Structure formats: C-alpha cells, structure tokens
C-alpha cells in the first residue's frame, strides 16, 4: 500500500433538529395548549486513534465526513432523534491542524484517545418552551444551530521508541526484519526502503518496543538529495536513535566520515532531534574476522571521540543482536516516563477546537447555541436552586470534617452539636431546593448526631 503521511479532509458535523410548533387537539379538551417538542442535537465528529493504521492513505479517496443531523421535534411533546456521532479512525501519531487558521487542534498519541474535531449543532426549541402566563399559545419555535464545519490538515508523524538511522545499504531493514515480524524490502542497492516502516520488537514476556526503519540518508539530504529528509519527521518522536554503520562499505568510504555526514544532516533537520540519545551500531561484522572488526571499530571510536554507547552486530549471523535489544529495551523502560508529546512540546492531547461560540450555554454538553431567548428558557430557577443547595451540602460536609478533628482532642460533643445546628439551618434555608439535595443534607446531619451519641455513650 502507498505510504501517505499528509492529507486534507473536510468535516461537517450534523445540524441540530428544528423545534416544533404544535398544539394538543383532542376531543373534549378545548385549548389543549402547546405541545411542540424540541429537535435533537446534531452528531459530533471525533478523531479516534486506531493502532491498526500506519498511513493516511485512506484519506486520499474519502475526504469529506458528514455526521448525521438531529431529527426535528414533533407534536405531542415528541423530541427529535439525536444525530449519531461519527468516529474517524486515524493512525497513532497524527497531528490535526485547522487548515483555515493553522491552529493545532490536537494529536493522537494514545490508543484510547478521541479528539473532537467538529461539534454537532444544538437542537431547536419547540413551542412548549415558550409558553408563559402571558403567552399561553406561543407560535414560536427555533431552528437548530448548524454543526461546525472545517477543513483539516492531517500530518502523520509515526510513533516509535527506537529509530534506525544510517546511510543507504547500512542494513537497517535487515535488522528490523531480523528482530521483528515486519517484512521491509531488503536488497543490495541504495534506497530500497522508500517509506518508514515500524515493527514491534519482543524482547521477553510482556517486554516489547517499537522500532522504526526509515529510508537511508545521504550527504545533502537536508537540501533534497536522495529521498531528502522528508521521512526524518518520523523519527522525531523516537526517543532513542540507533545509528547503523556498515563496517565494510562496498564503496570503500571512510566510516567515520559517513557517521559525521549523517549527524550533520540530522542537525540541519532538527537540532533537538540530533541532541537525542544516539547509539552507534556497527553492522555486518560477519564480513571480517572478529579481531579485525574490533580494531577497526576501536579506531573509528577514537577518531570520533565517541563517548556514547556502541554495539557491534550482524543481522545475518545474529551476533550481538541479543545484547543490543536488551540494552534498548532497558533504556526504553527506564525512559518511559517521558511521553512522546512532551518531547515534541505539543499541547495537551484532549484539545477541543478553539473557535467556540461565545454562548453562556457552552457549559451544556453538546451545546453551540447562540439565541439569547433560549438561554433564558434553559436557565430555569430550580436548576439554580439545586446548585445552591449542593454548595450548602458541600459546606456542611466541610464543616463536619473540620469540627471532628479538634473534637477528638477536646470536648467532642459540644462541637459536633454545633455542626448539627449548622446542618439544620441549611435544611431550613434550602426548603425550596430539590428533595435530593435536602436528603443529602439530612444524611450528613444524621451522621454527625450518631457519632456524637456514640462518643457520649463511650464516655
Ligand atoms: N553480510 C551481511 N550483510 C548484510 C547484513 N545486514 C544487511 N546486509 C546486506 O546489506 C544489504 C542492504 O541491506 P538493507 O537492509 O536493504 O539496507 P538498508 O539500510 O535498509 O538500505 P536502504 O533501505 O536502501 O536505506 C542487503 O543486501 C543485505 O543482505 C549483515 O549483517 N551482514
Ligand atoms: Mg531499507
């Protein structure tokens, strides 16, 4: 399959359903009153991380995603159906940008993650909502608000723990195929690998990490030579870089110079990535006697003044592979506290689009309503009262907590009864509040009385 790491798509969330104007009509019931129901909310579109995907190739064909609109309200107080939400699967490591503003909406870095990319419209209100003592037969209803629509630019930066780096033909793909189930193309000509390929390396029971093979780099890659540095962005999120070196390059090139070249290109691409942990991995040691290989490697290390870790392996004879994989696994486990998104300095993952409507109703889930009338209707009194009662319950609970601590030390009962009095006061004051809230206050008061009695009897 073709590897695609950039795509533009359009998302259109569902609009809210219309409110209905209806009146109850029944035999022997004159003036039945308004009974037009609300519409349903429109469907929202979410981007969901799908670990089965590795490319954005699917978005080449299907570029527009539309969520369902909410159903219209009907007579007999029937509410319209909610529009179904839509989930768009994207590979892990996808960055989602708003094409219009350039704003980074979010990035998918965890398998369970979901990012809202277009908010569904808020439902229209039926005429029941508009009835009042002075307007008993309102011929008034509202339309649902439209769903958000936006163009998105998707950028894929694959996620892996360990990235492979090196000249073409260094043996990167061979190493990946030797240690994982991935089957990248391998051949003895440069640029066999044309796109990045991840593979899962299982080191032991429940111990595994992801290794990423990328196309080879050559001198001048930063300015477009070879396949350029386009694919280097896929090792941006890797935490450890394995720099593969062919100890006996067929071209007879100096290996120290090759290592320096690759690092210079890496630095040109991104200094921060170049400063990451890098291990030198001398490959193809099966091509010469061991002692000769050792001498060659030591010489190279001396010339490079290399202070980091290094390994000598052969992907064909599998010499040194075990040590390398265990060391990499240990390193990955040690550094697992660092989240990849921290490395990138990207914002938090559960980001919502910034362009929110300036409505007070924003607090309601799934709400993008703007009409001032609707705001008034929904902020009805019982809601405010219940909120106040809840606050009071919290205050009593806090008071009880505070009072019981010093009460253990000194005169417990006196202090506890004070709290009871406080709780009772709250009950009295919140008589009009919701019965649930009242119950909660009573429960707290009862608890305090019980505790006080128990302590009294102990004495
Ligand atoms: N003798 C020997 N040959 C190897 C070893 N590893 C890789 N090769 C050979 O080196 C050649 C290139 O290997 P690849 O794995 O395709 O190299 P690559 O780094 O992925 O190259 P590009 O994809 O072109 O960047 C192949 O012919 C491999 O068989 C090794 O450990 N020993
Ligand atoms: Mg390759």
Can you walk through the features of this model?
This protein is α/β, with parallel strands linked by helices. The protein folds into 3 domains: 1-156, Spo0b-associated Gtp-binding Protein, Chain: A (Distorted Sandwich); 162-344, P-loop containing nucleotide triphosphate hydrolases (Rossmann fold); 381-458, no CATH class. Helices cover 30% and strands 17% of the residues. It has helices at 172-179, 255-269, 271-274, 290-304, 321-334, 340-344, 372-378, 381-409, 412-429, 435-458, and strands at 6-12, 45-49, 64-66, 86-90, 94-98, 104-107, 114-118, 149-156, 162-166, 197-204, 207-213, 240-246, 277-283, 310-312. The chain has a 6-stranded mixed sheet, sandwiched between helices. A 5-stranded mixed sheet has the order 3-1-8-5-6, with no helix packed on it. A hairpin with a 5-residue loop joins strand 5 (94-98) and strand 6 (104-107). Residues 338-349 and 355-383 have low confidence and may be disordered. The structure holds guanosine-5'-triphosphate and magnesium ion. The site of magnesium ion (MG) has 6 residues, from helix 1.
Record the SSE blueprint.
Blueprint: E1 6-12, E2 45-49, E3 64-66, E4 86-90, E5 94-98, E6 104-107, E7 114-118, E8 149-156, E9 162-166, H1 172-179, E10 197-204, E11 207-213, E12 240-246, H2 255-269, H3 271-274, E13 277-283, H4 290-304, E14 310-312, H5 321-334, H6 340-344, H7 372-378, H8 381-409, H9 412-429, H10 435-458
Parallel strand pairs: 1-3, 2-4, 9-11, 9-12, 12-13, 13-14
Antiparallel strand pairs: 1-8, 2-7, 5-6, 5-8, 10-11
Helix pairs in contact: 8-9, 8-10, 9-10
Residues 166, 168-174, 186-188, 190-193, 215-216, 283-284, 286-287, 314-316 line the site of guanosine-5'-triphosphate.
């Amino acid at each position: 399959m073709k590897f695609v790491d950039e795509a533009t798509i359009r998302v259109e969330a569902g609009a809210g359903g219309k409110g209905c104007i209806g009146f109850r009509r029944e035999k022997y019931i004159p003036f039945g009153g308004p009974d037009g129901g609300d519409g349903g909310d429109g469907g929202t579109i979410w981007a969901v991380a799908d670990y089965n995907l590795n490319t954005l190739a699917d978005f080449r064909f299907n570029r527009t995603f539309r969520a369902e609109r909410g159903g219209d309200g009907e007579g007999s107080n029937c509410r319209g159906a909610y529009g179904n939400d839509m989930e768009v699967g994207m590979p892990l490591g996808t960055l989602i940008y708003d094409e219009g503003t350039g704003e980074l909406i979010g990035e998918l870095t965890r398998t369970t993650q979901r990012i809202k990319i277009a908010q569904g419209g808020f439902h229209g209100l039926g005429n029941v909502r508009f009835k009042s003592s002075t307007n008993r037969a309102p011929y008034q209803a509202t339309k649902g608000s439209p769903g958000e629509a936006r163009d998105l630019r998707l950028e894929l930066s694959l996620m892996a723990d360990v990235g492979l780096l090196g000249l073409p033909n260094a043996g990167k793909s061979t190493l990946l195929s030797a240690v994982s189930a991935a089957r990248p193309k391998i051949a003895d000509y440069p640029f066999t690998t044309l796109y990045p390929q991840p593979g899962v390396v299982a080191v032991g029971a429940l111990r595994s990490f992801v290794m990423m093979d990328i196309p080879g780099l050559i001198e001048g890659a930063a300015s477009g030579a070879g396949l350029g540095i386009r694919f280097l962005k896929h090792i941006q999120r890797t935490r450890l870089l394995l720099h593969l070196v062919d100890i006996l390059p067929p071209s007879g090139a100096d290996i120290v110079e090759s290592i320096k070249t690759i690092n210079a290109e890496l630095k040109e691409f991104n200094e921060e990535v170049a400063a990451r942990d890098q291990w030198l991995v001398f490959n193809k040691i099966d091509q010469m006697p061991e002692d000769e290989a050792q001498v060659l490697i030591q010489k190279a290390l001396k010339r490079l003044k290399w202070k980091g870790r290094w390994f000598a392996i052969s992907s064909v004879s599998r010499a040194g592979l075990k040590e390398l994989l265990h060391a990499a696994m240990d390193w990955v486990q040690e550094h697992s506290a660092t989240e990849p998104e921290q490395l990138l300095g990207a914002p938090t993952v559960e980001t919502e689009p910034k362009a929110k409507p300036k409505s007070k109703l924003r607090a309601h889930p799934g709400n993008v309503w703007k009409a001032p009338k609707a705001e008034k209707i929904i902020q009805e009194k019982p809601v405010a009262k219940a909120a106040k009662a809840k606050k009071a319950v919290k205050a009593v609970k806090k008071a009880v907590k505070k009072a019981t601590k010093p009460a253990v030390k000194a005169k417990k009962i006196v202090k506890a009864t004070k709290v009871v009095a406080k709780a009772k006061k709250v009950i009295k004051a919140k008589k009009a509040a919701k019965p649930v809230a009242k119950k909660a206050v009573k429960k707290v008061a009862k608890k305090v009385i019980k505790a006080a009695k128990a302590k009294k009897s102990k004495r």
